[in-house]
Amino acid sequence: ETDFVSALRLCKRRRIGPLRPESNRELFYKKDMGVLARGGFSFDLSKRVLELEKAEFDKLIKII
Question: Alpha-carbon distance 21 to 25, whole Å?
Answer without folding.
Answer: 6
